[in-house]
Amino acid sequence: SLNCVEWSLLPPATEEVVAQAQRLKGRFQGDPSFEHENSEVNAEDAETVEGEKEPVMKEEARLVATIEQIDRAVGIIPRGAFVKTPSGSVHENRSFEGLSLMEAKKLSSYFHFTEPVNLKNKTLLEKADLDPSTDFLDSLEHDIPPGSWTVQLERGGTVVVLRSLLWPGLTFYHVPMTKQYGYIYFGTGEKNLDLPFML
């Protein structure tokens, strides 16, 4: 939206757009038609593309790619909010009543809401303690670098808040013993690539 009254949907992100957006640096301008130039074109690439313009990307496409990157990296849900059926389909768990306060304080009680990567690399012995109906996603406790999440209690311990240090501005909340949870991002759209050196 340009005027906060009329809204339109963004197109879906493709892998090419996401890869191109990862090479861009700098903040967003607020104009969907603004063209970002890739300043990291090396000399070899510049020679092979003689006569052509430098690769540019419209801000609208960069926004779509950045939202996709954030959702993949830090879109999370509490353990048990979704279940996997024996047929392999994933559904919202209607009987989910929230995590207990003790569970809500642990990073192992939260999962990335994307296709699992680390879970496939676990041995059978490591998978033996997991419940296949609820533990079918990657847990936050194994995120790299370790320490990329902060867990805090707010409002006298009635709300658990997780903040991402990798994508500053991402805040997830969960009210223990209720179905209330969600996340929101208020950031610059820039990933904190210095995080491993800051921890």
UniProtKB/TrEMBL annotation:
InterPro entries: Radial_spoke (IPR006802), RSP9 (IPR055316). It is found in: Cell projection, Kinocilium; Cytoplasm, Cytoskeleton, Flagellum axoneme. GO terms for biological process: axoneme assembly; cilium movement involved in cell motility; motile cilium assembly. It comes from the Eukaryota. Residues 29-56 are annotated as: Disordered. Keywords: Cell projection, Cilium, Cilium biogenesis/degradation, Cytoplasm, Cytoskeleton, Flagellum. One of its GO terms (cellular component) is radial spoke. Belongs to the flagellar radial spoke RSP9 family. This is Radial spoke head protein 9 homolog. It comes from Apaloderma vittatum (Bar-tailed trogon). The lineage of its organism: Eukaryota, Metazoa, Chordata, Craniata, Vertebrata.
